[in-house]
Request: fold
Amino acid sequence: MAPKTRSYDPARIRTAVLAQFGLVAEAVGGLDEEQAARPTHLGEWTVGDLAAHLAWAVGSLAGAAARPPADRVEVTVATWPFATEALAPTIAGAHRDAAQEPLGALYGRTGARLAELLDVLPGDRVLPLWIGGMTAADFLVTRTVELVVHTDDLNRAAGLDIPFDRQALAACTRVLADALAVRAPGASVEVRVPPFAVVQCVEGPRHTRGTPPNVVETDPLTWIRLATGRTGWAESLAQAQVRASGERADLSALLPLMG
Reply:
């Protein structure tokens, strides 16, 4: 089960973010015009728009660090998935300036700046984000979600095969699993996403020993797609990508957790 406040190793998160960003950079730098113009399942975004958005999302750390620190922490890793909901329309167009730059150059510049910044930025610095004050360490954890989710989006839309850094995939899975426990607190359902996360959620009878009566189990990528609305609960059950047992094990009303 996830603790009430999960901790993340800063060094591992730093390595994971840089590694996943590097994997994406290598892939998108080789996109041709036809691939970049392909549609995605994200509204009107093309593959090129999606790639530019991801560079902007990761590079936003540098923009926030350049501003004076916020007075207090208002957002944590556990609350971040829900804090972003109100900003969806703003975020949707935030990458437009970045989209004017060739992707290879954009990713090269963003990656170099990120690596340089992470060498000197204190993890406890409170960044003044659009969603409220958040420590640099916590914000960096959320970049694993942006990177993993959009790596999957790029793979599906552009026919790419960008691999997932194991630590980035683990952190993303845990952030979204913990978000479910925040949305539906309780201990009547156990959600297992091996090998990275186990959380209990949903109000109701609590089990104390043995196998819990209500269990949901799936793999990390399916869980991430469910949590972000890339796939549906019924579809995943029908394709045996999710195994659910028990009368309380239907999570369809709780998903997605973020878009």
